[in-house]
Prior knowledge:
By secondary structure, this protein is of the alpha/beta class. Helix content is 29%, strand content 13%. The protein folds into 2 domains: 22-33 and 65-214, Collagenase (Catalytic Domain); 226-300, no CATH class.
Amino acid sequence: MLFLHLLLAILAITPLTDARIRRWKCGSTSPTKGFLDGTHYIIAMEKSDAASRLHTREEEPYLPRISFPVVFHILDNPYDIILTEMMLAEQFDILKTTFAAYNIDFYLQSHYYYEQSDWAAGQDYLEMGRQIRVGGYDTLNIYILEIASNKKGPDEEALGISSFPEWSEHIDFQADEFWEDGVQLTLNALVGNPFIDQGPEDEGKTLVHEFGHWLGLMHTFHHGCHPDFEHGGDMVLDTPPQYKKLGSRWPNPDTCHPPGTVQQCSADLGFPPNLVDNYMDYIPDACALSFTKGQTVRMK
Ligand SMILES: [Zn+2]
């Protein structure tokens, strides 16, 4: 830490905070029909698997360990290289440590630096992917930008954005979807960034959230209250539906809620209380602590 303070003093860089900008946790777009078709197909498999486990009295679904190569692309780094590499290492460690609990592993394949201020500002995302994306669909490409590519408005920015997996019989490696596959993480959400007031998104969990999207998870509030899990909430059996994001927008987020204290869908209609610590909700990093078993199965 002393080293970090010395470095900051030497660099004499002032915080790059713009109070006019409202930051959202995530700008991941609505899943496509191709994604939803795949999700319904997977739900059918999950139901069949659950039925077979009931028959054989197995309690746990088979969850193999899976591992992903990770490639960081730093598009136009405004900071010192040494400091940036420290932040990248810490961010990767958070990803690896968090998902170790779910038997999902990562290894750092490589990281690249570019001087591309237009890409760093979220422009020409498809062209950027065509030029620098690495590996197949099993490679997690993480783009570190100043501004994510689909700003919601002139005064609104998303901290991170992810593509969703697409259901397809045949992989088309020339399709736009392939080149756009990956996760965008802004410098605002890169853990340990001392140059920005990160508010409650300061523990590096935006990347955890975005990786959940990358493996097919939706927001817990995505489809709202519906008695059938296939059509409500995030379409996962053990995540109670909710109709809106639990946290509000940065910089005035809700604080953490105790379990059982938030009920957005009617208890009279049989809905259980909201989850209050799920990575796929919009909540401050300090409150985000878990994926459910159903979400873990879905990711696998
Ligand atoms: Zn999201």
